[in-house]
Design brief:
Elements lengths: L10 E4 L3 H12 L4 E4 L11 E3 L5 E3 L5 E2 H7 L5 E3 L5 E5 L2 E4 L8 H12 L10 H9 L1 H16 L18 H14 L19 E4 L4 H11 L3 E2 L4 E7 L2 E7 L2 E4 L2 E4 L3 H7 E2 L11 E13 L8 E3 L9 E3 L13 E9 L5 H4 L2 H9 L8 H4 E15 L5 H9 L6 E3 L11 H20 L4
Parallel strand pairs: 1-2, 1-14, 2-10, 7-17, 11-15, 14-21
Antiparallel strand pairs: 3-4, 5-9, 6-9, 7-8, 11-12, 12-13, 16-19, 16-20, 17-18, 18-19
Helix pairs in contact: 1-7, 1-13, 3-4, 4-5
Bound molecules: flavin-adenine dinucleotide.
The site of flavin-adenine dinucleotide has 34 residues, from helix 1, strand 20 and helix 13.
Amino acid sequence: MAEPSKTTPPVIVVGAGLAGLTAAAFLRRRGIPVRVCEAGKQVAGLASTHVDAQGFSYDFGAHFITNRLAAAIGVSADCLPVAHYGEMVRLGGRTYGYPFGLMRSARFLLSGISARAGQWGATPPQSAADVFRSRYGAALADEVAIPLLESWSGARATDLAPSVATVLNNSIGHTVLLKINSRLRQRAVAIGYCHELPETRHVWHVYPVGGVSLLCRRLANELESCIDLETPVDRIIVEQGRVAAVRANGREQPAAAVVSTAPVHILSRMVTGTDALRPLARFRYRPMVFANLRFTGRGHLPDTMLWTPDGGAPFFRLTETPLSMPWLAPKGHTLITADLGCEVGDAIWTASDEELGERCLQYLDWIPNARRRYLGCRVVRSPVAYPIFLNEYEQDRQALARSTGVEGLYSVGRNGEFAHWLMEDVYWRSLNAMRQLIRDQVAPAA
Ligand SMILES: Cc1cc2nc3c(=O)[nH]c(=O)nc-3n(C[C@H](O)[C@H](O)[C@H](O)COP(=O)(O)OP(=O)(O)OC[C@H]3O[C@@H](n4cnc5c(N)ncnc54)[C@H](O)[C@@H]3O)c2cc1C
């Protein structure tokens, strides 16, 4: 860490992913001293991209942003528009458009209608399973929504809080209108992507040339002298209910405030001098392994994303990103990313790239000549890919959404808020949190 300032202590930002860099750039533009401590060797966190020598691009899972976010960060000129994005579900050997194609099945349609009709006077849902059954009907919930939710989270849908289903909260009418606009304009209009600002036909998906990490690199350019890489913060010192300092690389530095983007169970362990964050130690994240399978040819999946709720396969979702973003694989080739939920240290987490590729391939025999076209696999792992909204700590999660309970400590970003935010929401919400920080600093609570 750099020499401590002898005047006003800086606001210390923990983490140089999109949230931390957005927060730091916002504060710096307003003349507030700021330092960013990043544990890793580079910026971008979950928004990192690696492009290999053959020209295949690997993100953590599939990553799309919007033209609105690109404009806000000033990278519009470096982004390519995404013309098409679609999702399908593979069930019992058949594929269905998502979400409306599933209604071709009379069983799903009837159970959906009867669920809607039975909603009057029903008791409030106690779990994600209740929400899905009342929203989609038992057939669609039990055969599609709940198996997907359980593979994704690693928890039983009956143990998950109803709030997990709010991620999917778009009205049918609005979704249809946006889909029609997508077709007419040949632009992948963003649907169900952003919660902070309205989704309209003017907001569509784009992809920055060279990878999504461009967003973070652009913000980092503004902050160059304020970012300390390979500087993991291991203590946030609270005195009399207020943040006083942080410790990183064995050195303490006074802090006017701390903005953490670290996963909240880790934040809970870092904070000393208060018990306010102790409940967060129980919060769990779902580790994920993304197996990126390279193939010759293209168009092996029926659409960009294919959900696979049928039991048996080690993955629950396949994404052929080059169907939306052809530049992510060299010409005449493609990349299919399989999402595998796991636990750190288990057989999936520790499998070699070759083993995982082989394991996925066994379940892709419905792709013509899959084995002959297969070129190999590159695996990307995240120990904290998805927050798991367990009912057992739902009240504490809602309390965290209001405040950390420590003066001068702000927890922002996807893992810092323990929420399923995509990058646009991370961006707008981090700005809002920094506006709040400035208000608190100018007029601290009595
Ligand atoms: C599978 C998957 C697919 C996704 N797809 C999309 C998509 O298509 N579109 C989209 O917009 N978003 C997508 N997202 C979400 C997007 O990646 C995240 O919302 C965003 O990148 C989160 O940024 P962040 O800064 O909050 O967190 P992170 O990127 O996790 O950054 C946190 C940083 O903090 C650092 N850190 C942690 N602890 C410490 C410490 N103690 N000291 C110092 N540094 C520390 C970490 O090293 C990391 O660099 C996806 C996410 C996943 C998991």
